[in-house]
Structures are given as C-alpha cells and as structure tokens.
C-alpha cells in the first residue's frame, strides 16, 4: 500500500525538472542565451536522474493494486510514455557530450520536443489514473 500512495506524490519533481529544463534549453538556444540553456541542461540532468526512483516506486506500487480492465490501458500507456521519456532524455544528455554540429543541434531540438511530449503524455495518463479512476484507493489495494 505504501508505494502506490507515494508514487503520485513524488513524480511531480522529475516532471517539473524535465519540463522546465526542456523549456529553458529550447528558449536559451533560440534566444542565444547560454546561461538559460545551461540552467536547462542542469534541470535535465537532475530530472533524468530522478526518473529511476519514481519509476521504481511506480512499479512497486503497480504490484500493490488490483488492476481492472477499465484502466489497464491507462496503466500500460503511462508505463510506455514514462519509459519513452527516460530513453529520450538519456539520448538528449548523450548528444550533449558529442561535438556540436548542425546534425546534433537539430537532433537535440527534435528530441527535446519529443521528450516534452512524452513527459506530458506520462502526466496525462497518470493524472487520469489518479483522478478518473481514483487510484490508489483503498478498495483497489491488496
């Protein structure tokens, strides 16, 4: 019961870091403000490394609830987009280590937009689980 109650509380921190980091990164690059871009990079790194604990707690919480067919698709979609976000932001941070050229810059922008979409989709499906299906609730806990 513990993990399914804690997961919705802690996921907002990685999401906020990744969304703000992406926005700072894109804004800083477009406006050629290196300090803003660097702040975005810091948020992306910090946000990336806060995903695994939130993800692990979410997986442990998933094992605590009775999964009904009415929300199975939402759980699967939430898991898919969270995994995709982790992969995309990992690639973004990997691209930051490569020499700068037009290809890495274009890929970086494109992946930032894709990562932002993945994080927002993760949040949407998580929000639906909490607010529409009222998870976790004490009737669904083992």
Give the overall shape, derived from the CA principal axes.
elongated
> Helices and strands: which structural class?
mainly alpha
Q: What's the main sheet like?
A: none
What is the helix fraction of residues, given as a range?
over 70%
Rg, alpha carbons: 17 Å
Distance between the termini: 7 Å
Query: What's the count of strands?
Result: 0
Mean pLDDT value = 93
Uncertain residue segments: none
Count the DSSP helices.
Answer: 5
Strand-and-helix sequence, N→C?
HHHHH
Strand content: under 5%
Tell me the number of structural domains: 1
Task: Give a description of the structure.
By secondary structure, this protein is mostly helical. The chain has one domain (2-132). The protein is 81% helix and 0% strand. The chain contains 5 helices and no strands. It has helices at 2-10, 12-30, 34-62, 69-95, 102-132. α2 (12-30) runs antiparallel to α3, α3 (34-62) runs antiparallel to α4 (69-95) and α4 (69-95) packs antiparallel against α5 (102-132). The protein is elongated. The mean pLDDT is 93.
């Amino acid at each position: 019961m513990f993990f399914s109650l804690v997961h919705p509380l802690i996921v907002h921190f990685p999401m906020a870091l990744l969304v703000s980091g992406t926005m700072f990164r894109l804004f800083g690059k477009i406006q050629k403000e290196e300090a803003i871009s660097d702040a975005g990079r810091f948020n992306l790194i910090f946000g990336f490394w806060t995903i695994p604990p939130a993800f692990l707690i979410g997986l442990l919480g998933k094992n605590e609830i009775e999964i009904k067919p009415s929300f199975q698709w939402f759980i699967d979609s939430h898991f898919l987009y969270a995994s995709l976000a982790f992969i995309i932001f990992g690639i973004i941070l990997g691209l930051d280590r490569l020499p700068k050229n037009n290809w890495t810059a274009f890929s970086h922008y494109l992946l930032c937009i894709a990562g932002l979409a993945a994080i927002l989709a993760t949040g949407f499906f998580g929000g639906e689980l909490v607010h529409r299906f009222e998870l976790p609730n004490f009737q669904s806990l083992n």
